[in-house]
Amino acid sequence: MMDKKKIVFMMMAMHMISVSAASRRTVRMAFASTSSIRDINSSTSFRNNIKTFRQVTASTTDIISEDNTSSSPRTSSLHTVMVKRNRQSQNFREGAPLIFGNSIAATYSENGDDDSIPLGSLVAVYVSRDDAQKHKGKKYKKGKPSNEPVYAHTNYDSSEAAQHHATINNSQLIGYGVYNPHSMYRVRILCHATQHPVLAKDSKRKQKTRVEDHDSEILKSILERKMSDAMNLRLAMNLPSESTDTYRLVNGEGDGCSGLAVDIIGGSTAIVMSSAAWCEVHKVAIVEVLEGLLNDHPSYNGVDIDIIWRNTPSRLKQDGYELSFESEASDEDDTEVIATESSVKYLTYPYSNGQKTGFYCDQRDNRLMVAEYCRDKRVLDLCCYNGGFALNAMVQGAAQCVGVDSSQDAIDAATANAMKNDLDPAKVSFVREDIAAYMKSAMKEEEEFDVIVLDPPKLAPNLSTLDKASRKYHALNRDAMNLINREMGGLLLTCTCSAAMTQKDGGQYFLNTVNGAGLSAKRRVTLLRVNGAAPCHTQSPASFPAGAYLTAALFHVGPVGS
User: Distance between CA 420 and CA 346 in Å, rounded?
Assistant: First the structure.
């Protein structure tokens, strides 16, 4: 089964192949359109298995042979990060996954020869047991960027090892993580000693053996445990099931893999999403572990699952990792994968590079929840994307649904999805138009709806844009309320996928914005429920609400003059 698979590395807009100088592998680059690649070099061995790697960008396809697919650092150096003993280090011991630079007292490398611990290296994180050992390190200078190292790094050889080992052995192990000297997130902890004591102890034992490539073996052991736990957790949620074969399998910090996410699409495709430098450095190890676990997954017996690698260049740049790119024309690969969610079928195109590529499974429960209120109702789905809310409403017996989106790809996809589900085209339609313009036109024509879903794209990418975004949310919600049935009132499900909006004032800020829109529309609003992402989008309680980004608030909008 293993040799039948294709592992497809797909990157959005940019790509880079990181190569270890010490590696014995070689890389062969082939540039072609996606559709013209036909398993080039399919007989090449990849770590004892026959694989073909395709790295697809919006413009290029790279065929990477076994001779150099691994960018993981191969080193016998032992790397240690010592954090300051304070309240923050207690948070790390209790499960917080991200260590900032100003929390670090010092770093050490045995047999190292660099000015810093190399990017992507596995590190053991310790905190001194002695309150007197402050390890204060250097102070930040005024105006100095927070992502620059401000602590001492020490390289030592075997003759000095005893002294440093004594210091380390007298300290408390917090866990193991991956290091990035260029990021504000200096260490992403992947294994906490308090949460995984056996795994941490085993990692410490392997590190002491000094075998070749021990870091890679430890990292793969950690990834196997984390991904296996993630799979078992989804099985506990009844994912996958007969009605749903599309879901989030690994969700970053929620599953102890900060910067890494994996979606299963249609029970046949796994999309890996990388937003941290360590994922790019260790992509081969990640794919190897994921593939092995999928092979053993009880739901995928005999299924050849393609693994697609994607990354987000903007997030990687924030993490201090620059991607290079090639400019070359590339055709779209329109291979369809049918995704099923709550018994509704969707045509997805995971090998493509356009907007129609993705499928957002974070709204699964919200789509089903609001659909249950739509029987015999007239429904408006604003920013409908692939028609998820409208399709669920129709399946649940809505009288009529209209979906609106500014993207023609989205409208085409939603229309095709409606046909795929054998829905009556006389009852469900999709319109390409700016939603603000559509609502103004609908108000002039005195149109009314019983249920409206407003699910715009991210309007507040960060705190600095929050004020401007809140005005936009206010205007959109006000206009949506003006289209709610004037005599009987109706329901409004309004959403924000902006973490800045969701997290502001514990979520109250967004609710206040919607309430203000109700005052402007002169419509009384009553909050019925507030949801987040589907539970397969797990969160770490130690870092909550940092991982919360989606708010879906269901309101009843009262009749005019009530």
Answer: 7
Residue 136, Cβ density class (10 Å: 0-12 exposed, 13-18 middle, ≥19 buried): exposed
Q: Three-state SS for 516? A: helix
Neighbouring CB atoms inside 10 A of 335's CB total 14
Distances (CA, A) of 558 to 142, 356, 526, 552: 54, 36, 8, 19
- Between CA 439 and CA 451 the distance in angstroms is 14
| pTM for this entry | 0.85
Of the candidates 7, 34, 2, the residue with the CA atom closest to the CA atom of residue 331: 34
The dihedral built from the CA positions of residue 338, 341, 345 and 351, taken in this order, carries a sign that is negative
Q: DSSP letter at 324?
A: P
Residue 486: other Cβ atoms inside 10 A: 16
pLDDT exceeds cutoff 70 at 450: yes
3-state DSSP assignment of residue 247: strand
How far apart CA 131 and CA 278 sit, in angstroms, is 32
How far apart, in whole angstroms, are the C-alpha atoms of residue 548 and residue 253?
A: 11
Give per-residue pLDDT as tens, 243-285: 999 999 999 999 999 999 999 999 999 999 999 999 999 999 9
Question: Please, which residues bridge with residue 250 across strands?
Answer: 262
Distance CA 142, CA 412 (A): 53
Q: Taking residues 397-413, what's their average pLDDT?
A: 96
* Closest C-alpha to 379, from 491, 476, 514, 494: 491
Per-residue tokens: 236: 């506990």
Q: Does 51 score more than 50 pLDDT?
A: no
Relative orientation angle of helices 466-481 and 435-444, to the nearest 10 degrees: 30
